[in-house]
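Quick one, tokens below:
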């Protein structure tokens, strides 16, 4: 059992840290957060450096790496800045559906665009009436000649309105029982007639990331836009979740580490009652708890990524990693604010933004309650 990163992984980690140091600016981050603007230039530079789609094959402008290298990049980006990092890290969200299930033509057309920082990707699963329950879709896709005709509404879609294409989960067999056996994934280009988007409104955090409602009204796409196999979309999405939940865990891990870094630096230089805040035992105990939680989250997240790279699907492990890392991010960011006191509440000191950005990691890609359902189901097994 080896717990050390490889030389290549350490080099990737250093490259991302250098990129963050050179490109992430605190004042710019605050400005973009307040204006709810996507960090386009930074995203494009990340693409130029090969930090996006690092887990794509080289023929699709990736570096042929795995989930482990992918989450190292995500962790370091989000450690550098919770909001910029999250926006850049999830710029290619759901493109893995194309990578693992798309046709060769799809891969050649879209994956290089994502990896090179020229196109955002989006997965359209969640619906207004169903939330985390994707076992049945109100969005339908019906064959008409050589086309699919799609109708429905998706909500809380990351990168919605900015993405170049959407991987849309549709109900294609209305008679299937249970309903998820009749679901299909279909690629829908953003410029298709009948597709429209609208921002969901003001959010608590992740202000640089677009979150939209996507409306599909008689949207026609070729039958060749099928992703994977007809009526297998639900299973393809579940496999994707096993990878994407590790990515969200890494996002949470990076946010937690970034909040800790800022809190530690502050208490080591700030004085109260004639000595450094770091000299007070209550501060030391907070830091000890924070560091321990982060280490636990890192071990679980790294193990989940390593396991995925072995070709094994383990929803229990990935759900554990996401649940623990998400909770850690919220708790560590909360304590970081407490250690900074009144300054922790101010935008200039960044940890309040870490706190706002951390919470989403307990919600999207399945709430922590959904993760517990998955874990419990695996632990209990089938009851006779």
């Amino acid at each position: 059992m080896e717990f050390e990163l490889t030389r290549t992984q350490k080099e990737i980690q250093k490259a991302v840290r250098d990129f963050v140091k050179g490109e992430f600016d605190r004042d710019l981050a605050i400005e973009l957060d307040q204006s709810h603007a996507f960090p386009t230039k930074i995203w494009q530079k990340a693409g130029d450096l090969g930090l996006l789609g690092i887990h794509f094959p080289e023929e699709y402008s990736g570096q042929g790496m795995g989930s482990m290298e992918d989450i190292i990049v995500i962790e370091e980006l989000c450690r550098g800045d919770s909001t910029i990092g999250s926006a850049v890290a999830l710029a290619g969200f759901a493109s893995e559906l194309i990578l693992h299930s798309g046709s060769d033509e799809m891969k050649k057309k879209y994956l290089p665009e994502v990896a090179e920082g020229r196109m955002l990707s989006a997965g359209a699963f969640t619906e207004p009436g169903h939330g985390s329950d994707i076992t049945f879709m109100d969005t339908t896709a019906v064959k008409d000649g050589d086309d699919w005709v799609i109708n429905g509404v998706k909500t809380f879609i990351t990168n919605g309105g900015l993405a170049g294409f959407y991987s849309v989960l549709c109900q294609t067999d209305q008679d299937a029982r249970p309903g998820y056996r009749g679901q299909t994934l279909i690629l829908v280009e953003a410029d298709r007639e009948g597709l429209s988007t609208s921002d969901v409104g003001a959010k608590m955090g992740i202000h640089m990331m677009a979150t939209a409602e996507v409306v599909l009204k008689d949207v026609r796409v070729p039958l060749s836009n099928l992703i994977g196999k007809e009526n297998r979309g639900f299973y393809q999405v579940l496999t994707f979740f096993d990878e994407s939940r590790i990515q969200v865990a890494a996002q949470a891990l990076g946010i937690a580490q970034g909040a800790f870094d800022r809190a530690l630096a502050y208490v080591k230089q700030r004085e109260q009652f004639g000595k450094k805040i770091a000299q007070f035992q209550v501060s030391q105990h907070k830091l000890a708890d924070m560091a321990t939680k982060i280490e636990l989250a890192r071990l679980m997240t790294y193990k989940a990524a390593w396991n995925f790279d072995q070709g094994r699907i383990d929803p229990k492990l990935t759900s554990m990693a996401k649940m623990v890392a998400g909770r850690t991010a919220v708790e560590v960011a909360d304590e970081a604010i407490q250690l900074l006191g009144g300054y922790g509440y101010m935008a200039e000191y960044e940890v309040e933004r870490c706190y706002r950005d951390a919470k989403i990691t307990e919600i999207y890609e399945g709430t922590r309650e959904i993760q517990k359902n998955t874990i419990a189901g695996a632990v209990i097994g089938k009851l006779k």
